Amino acid sequence: MEQPVNGRRWAIVVLAFTAIMLNYVDRQVIALLKPMLQDEYGWSDRDYSHMASAFQFCAAVSFLGTGWFIDRIGLRRGFAIGVAAWSLAGMAHAFVSTVSGFIGVRALLGAAESIGTPAQVKTAATYFPPEQRSLMLGIGNMASNFGAVAAPLAIPPLALWLGWRAAFLITGGLGLVWVVVWLLVTPRTARTPDGAVVDAPADAVPWGRMLRDRRQWAIVAAKALSDQCWWFLLFFMPDLFHRMFGLSQGQLGLPIAFIYFLAALGSLSGGLLPTWLLRRGVPMNRARKGSMLLYAILILPVPAVLLTADAWVAAGLLGLGLFAHQGFSTNVFGMTADIFPARMIGTAIGIGAFAGNLSGMAMIEAAGFSLDNGYGYGPLLMVCGGSYLVALLLVHLLVPRLTLAEPGSFRTVPTGH
């Protein structure tokens, strides 16, 4: 039966938020259990880097298909299939014990979890008008941080209580519960009160034209140069605190949760700031790029982590860095939703996320090399500090003036801003 979306869209947003939160819990479990698993199985830092890189590589390649997939079959079915697949892949970690086994299940998890980002952006673009999308994307982007806050508070105690295998089984099982609720809540055919279908399969998006479009390359540049820092910190931050400050498995939770709490605030601010600017008549181009410039400046102090011997000072600096990253990232998502029509959002963000995951994989491999060869975290933190200004410069060179996309086409229309 056809149903209007207005009464259900907030429930759909809450479910999408929950899915992305679970997405980040599942991918972070292995980082939080690294000291425990390294002691049990004798992994080297390069072994762990290979596991993380397998996740990144498979996620990157899969982004080229999952964005297209969710545009092609629709949000309801596509999101359900993706969450079910990544939940089963997460649970599979409990049944492996070798380096090659962990590399294999990390690869499966990365491939399945790639559905999350295009689904998140498509949810905002599908159910909310342009003037509300930035705020919705900011709220949605907070989900990753809630997951990243919940994971360090819950996973280490859970692993110490029930064993590390239980941590993978329980977090994966929650995703399967989500799939059931999602299919019960979302209507098979969703329409607005005026009869427009808001979630339906789309025609194939012409990839050749996408790759010749400067707007697409702006998204690629922004994602590649910002996501490399996010992925590096996501996979190596627990080890950084363990290595630099001697924090044990049980002591990691609070400082890392604090960092991701600040990152969550960054996501919210990344939605609120451009919305506030637009409502005061600031041109869209200036509102987006001005917001991104602020966040690019805020991340510059991250390398100062090397100068402190206090774990909580380091947590404050890294928290400021991830606050800035999430504010910047929210505006990249918002920019994508602005400059591409809704039916192409999944494909556009999928191509960008492909580049972001490849750069993240390169950064992770560089981290393993740097640590194994005695260079430490210094070179990596320096890269993080400067990447965002370079990303913004490339965005501006590729798209000097951001304008709203005309629905259903590659063209843009004047915004009046």
Automatic annotation (TrEMBL):
Signal peptide: none
Gene3D superfamilies: MFS general substrate transporter like domains
Coiled coil segments of this chain: none
Primary subcellular site in the record, as a coarse category: membrane
Residue span(s) of domain Major facilitator superfamily (MFS) profile: 12-403
Membrane topology according to the record: Multi-pass membrane protein
Alphabetic keyword roster: Membrane, Transmembrane, Transmembrane helix
Transmembrane regions listed in the UniProt entry: 51-70, 79-103, 162-185, 217-237, 257-278, 290-306, 312-333, 345-364, 376-399
Superkingdom of source: Bacteria
Subcellular localization(s) per the UniProt record: Membrane
Protein name: MFS transporter
